[in-house]
Fold this protein.
Amino acid sequence: MKFNLDDNTAKSSILLIYTGGTIGMKVDPAEQTLKPFDFSQILEEVPELGKFAYRIDSCTFESVIDSADIEPRSWQALAGLIEERYDSYDGFVILHGTDTMAYSASALSFMIEGLTKPVIFTGSQLPIGVARTDGKENLISAVEIAAAKDSEGHAVVPEVCICFGNALMRGNRTRKVNSENFRAFRSADCPLLAEAGINIRYNTAVIRRPEDWNRRPVFHKELDTRVSILKLHPGITPQVVRNILCGPETRAVIMETYGAGNAPSKEWFLDLVKEASGMGKILLNVTQCLAGSVNMDLYATGKKLENAGVQCGYDSTTEGALAKLFHLMGMYTENAKVIDGLGQNLRGEITK
Ligand code: ASP
């Protein structure tokens, strides 16, 4: 679908991809629950988009979904779509449910290497047809950011981002932190890439740029999803830890530890970590804290994990760590290469 636009005068061209989520839902009177509706209705609700001198095309996922139903194959479809249309657009805006947006943005950030154009995720807390909706502003800001170019004609933000509540955040640094507030996302360990007020102020010192603007990005669509997450808590039992760490289906386990990367110092716990490591499991330490980094050299309990073969996740979010593992494990069959990649800052996902 194409709307309002005169191709000759268009300054930038944007592809709007609608996957589903609250931004495009309305109340089903029979069930009194929110259900996705047709994308054309969103465009009717946001006539402001027509005021931009941009060419805005749109496409919709075959079946629009609540983002709780997002799967890695949805990310492969998104990456495939962007790859296919990469040369035809200056930027991409993905409308997506907020619940798993941080996972999807993280995944896309790893799946596209050498990005030279913006890929901006947005959505809303209130459906776009509702009086106080945040959807309109989020969508308009996302489109403006996706279209922004500098004086040399390069994209101002050639990154995978989340634009929400007037803030532009690096996708793989972002977490959904509030199920009600319009500021639903937070990027605790990475400064905002831009803030939308009267003007959109870009934090150019933080925004990443490609090494070569003329090189086409590489799209990595292979993902290996054999990852589990072990969230530590007081009272966790050996049976639960064993099931998660040593499960035959997993190749890697993200350990959500306390504080700066600490875990119980009980013998049974460390024995299980060593057993999993000995089985060839990739173990990655991320913190349960909402901000700050893992540092396994700080406390004896962290050091023991390191000695048992656990990798440092630095200040990675769990969402970012999961996506990074899916990506690296999809690329490499050798665990040593995956582990080497985990220690590197590939897409701005960790502070190193
Ligand atoms: N359940 C919705 C979703 O994530 C919530 C939202 O869009 O904000 O698809």
